[in-house]
Design goal:
By secondary structure, this protein is of the alpha+beta class. It has 6 helices and 12 strands. β7 and β8 form a beta hairpin. α1 runs antiparallel to α4. Bound molecules: fe (ii) ion.
Length: about 190
C-alpha cells in the first residue's frame, strides 16, 4: 500500500501548487517521511469504498483514498456519550500528514475526513486554526460569528482558533481534507451552542 499512499501524497502536492486557498493557509513540508500504520477498517468507512466521485478536478485524490479505504488506519476519537451512536456510524477520519500520520512531520497536520449522508457533527472547537477543503459531495458548515454555508468540491472554510463550528450532511456524503497549521497537539472540545 505504500505506493498508493505515496501517489496520494503526490496528488495532494499537485493540488497545493494549483490552489491558493490551500497554499496561503500553510506550506506543505518537503521532508515528509513515510510511516506505515496498521489498518483499522471501520464500518462507517465501507460507504466510502463504494462511492465513486463525480467531480473531475478532485477525482484522482478521491479515487486513491477510496482504493486505500480498507487499509487505512481509520480513527473516530470521540466517545459515544459526547457525539451519539448515529454520528459514529457515519463518520471516520485519518491522519495523512502530521506527528502521527502516514507521513511524519511536526510542521502541520493534514487529515482526511468522511461523513455519510444525513449526519451531524456536533459543535466543537480547538486551539488550532483549521481549514476544510471539500473533495467530494457537500456539507453545510456553521460557525459562531460567520454565515453558514453549503460547501461543494474545491471550496474551503476557515475555522479560527477556538471558534465553535459544526457540520451537517443531507442527501450527499462528504469527503474533505482538514488542515491544521499550528498547535498540532490541540484537544477538541465539544461545546454547547444556544
Ligand atoms: Fe474542527
Amino acid at each position: 500500500m505504500e505506493k498508493l499512499f505515496k501517489d496520494l501524497k503526490k496528488e495532494i502536492y499537485k493540488l497545493w501548487e494549483k490552489n491558493l486557498d490551500l497554499s496561503n493557509f500553510t506550506k506543505l513540508p518537503k521532508d515528509l517521511i513515510y510511516n506505515n500504520l496498521q489498518s483499522n477498517y471501520i464500518e462507517s468507512a465501507k460507504k466510502l469504498k463504494t462511492w465513486k466521485s463525480n467531480f473531475a478536478k478532485t477525482e484522482n485524490i478521491h479515487d486513491i483514498i477510496r482504493r486505500l479505504t480498507p487499509y487505512i488506519n481509520w480513527k473516530q476519537t470521540y466517545d459515544e456519550k459526547d457525539v451519539g451512536k448515529s454520528f459514529l456510524e457515519k463518520y471516520g477520519y485519518f491522519e495523512l500528514f502530521g506527528p502521527t500520520g502516514y507521513f511524519l512531520t511536526k510542521k502541520m497536520s493534514l487529515y482526511v475526513i468522511f461523513f455519510d449522508t444525513d449526519n451531524f457533527y456536533t459543535w466543537h472547537n480547538h486551539e488550532a486554526d483549521e481549514l476544510y477543503f471539500v473533495l467530494s459531495g457537500s456539507a453545510k458548515f456553521e460557525s459562531v460569528g460567520d454565515k453558514s454555508e453549503i460547501l461543494t468540491p474545491m471550496k474551503t472554510r476557515l475555522h479560527k482558533s477556538f471558534q465553535p463550528h459544526s457540520l451537517t450532511t443531507y442527501n450527499e456524503k462528504c469527503l474533505s481534507l482538514v488542515i491544521w497549521r499550528d498547535k498540532l497537539e490541540s484537544s477538541i472540545q465539544v461545546v454547547k451552542i444556544k
